[in-house]
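To whoever is on call:

I kicked off a structure prediction for a single chain this morning and the downstream step that reads the tokens threw a length-mismatch warning. I double-checked the sequence; it's 621 residues and nothing unusual in it as far as I can see. Pasting both halves so you can look.
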Amino acid sequence: RRCPPGSASLTPALPACTARPLTPPLPFPGQRCERVMAASKPVEAAAGGRGGGGTGLSRWQLALVLGAPILLGAGALYLWGRRAARRGGKGASERKTPEGRASPGPCGGGGQPDGPSHEEMSPLDRAQAAKNKGNKYFKAGRYEQAIQCYTEAISLCPPEKNLDLSTFYQNRAAAYEQLQKWTEVAQDCTKAVELNPKYVKALFRRAKAHEKLDNKKECLEDVTAVCILEAFQNQQSMLLADKVLKLLGKEKAKEKYKNREPLMPSPQFIKSYFSSFTDDIISQPLLKGEKSDEDKDKEGEASEVKENSGYLRAKQYMEEENYDKIISESTKEIEAKGKYMAEALLLRATFYLLIGNANAAKPDLDQVISMEDANVKLRANALIKRGSMYMQQQQPVLSTQDFNMAADIDPQNADVYHHRGQLKILLDQIEEAVEDFDECIRLRPDSALAQAQKCFALYRQAYTGNNPLPVQVAMKGFEDVIKKFPKCAEGYALYAQALTDQQQFGKADEMYDKCIDLEPDNATTYVHKGLLQLQWKQDLDKGLELISKAIEIDNKCDFAYETMGTIEVQRGNLDKAIEMFNKAINLAKSEMEMAHLYSLCDAAYAQTEVAKKYGLKPPTL
């Protein structure tokens, strides 16, 4: 799946509803491979070009898992409706013209040459004549005159003729739209909708007016109603929904993230993070002599480290999985300017990143990188983490610069090539990614992660190129990796994704079982396996059971809450979906991820409002 605290945005990390991210999904520094790889999907899969055969492992791909082609943009929230799109869509046609024919004749003036006189016409006929004259002015670009005619039509129309009257208001709104009088557009569309609650043209025109007036919530509700009424087949309304959801998500996330309480991830997450590094000094166990003998007191607690060092105490807390004390102990070492100051800065920065406080992490990373007398492994590790942080912040140029600098100062550091290879995959630079993985393997032949990632990179390249022979070669490569490294859970996870792409669901399920055997406390694997049940057997109960198991294992697994929320949207349980999305929001580790989650939540909420106002509900599973 996507990387833990990254890939949260709707544009840089566009959901499965997009053909290809403009900027790739973003990695959390040092994230293990299957989480990163699952965020990088091929163009064909994301567009539904292979029959909806996505892996279901990326959060962006839940629609594919459920057998639905994907939309463009943030419409992950509307993914349930896209099954209807298979029957063909309306495209992106504009809705600028007024309704009714453009008949000659003055506003409310005489009828046709051989028709009845003005005096003989009924009030409705006279209103229609005024509207038709207004249409003529509209098509000639004479919008003020058109408005006068539509106004006359409204005044002439019998009040019981709701549909005709709603058309006149909608036409006048169209003329106001051409004059960019957005308040008047919204007012007239409101009148039209009051008279005809399922009037698509009026709802969509009002949505556009609300967008111009910066009424995002109202815009979203209107465009949601339009999407449902049109069975999600008009790209223009889908794009507006996507746009306003992104804006709403970013606004809310900016405010929420600024005031959020830092939250330490689960121990499993932290251990998984550190296990992705082999040359990270700060994650190594305490050396002999740094800690006194395992002389325990009566309560069974290990005695303190020999030296009065905040850093060494922080390291001991790491071994004890007492992570909440690490930042404070590292700070003591830094303030004392102790001999482990560089290590303490890097350790503190790492935990700032883990709790989602990149602003606090950056000065510490900057300081370590600038310490030319510090251990080069520390500086390279700081560059890797800062580079990953930049990528998470949608700054791929700065990210690449940091990785390249790390390779320059420590060319024998396998971690540099391992993590830069992941970055290259996310940037869709597959050949360069493979080169980096090869270098990592050369430096560290026992690196199971790099070998599995290389296989996945080659597989993605072959899959997106629609070339069967290289796909077969890559699949054989996975078999070789899991045979050579039978204890590498990520190898099985990546192979499972490839197998799912190839519709080999039974074997993919077996690979996930292997992952669970190796890492029974890895909640993410249960989510992946649950999604597979949905795609493979359409077994909602089993899928939700496995995702619930993931939450039981790790109640801080935001991916599980988000996935469950998305499924509940598809089931029509919108209140439950909103509850799940809000839980995921509170666990989000980056502002960008939070923005994405708010977009999902806002979409679900808009659907509840539409259901109340118009009695409209999308199709459910």
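Update from on-call: the warning came from a stale cache, not from the record. Cleared it. Sanity check on the structure: The longest helix spans residues 235-259.
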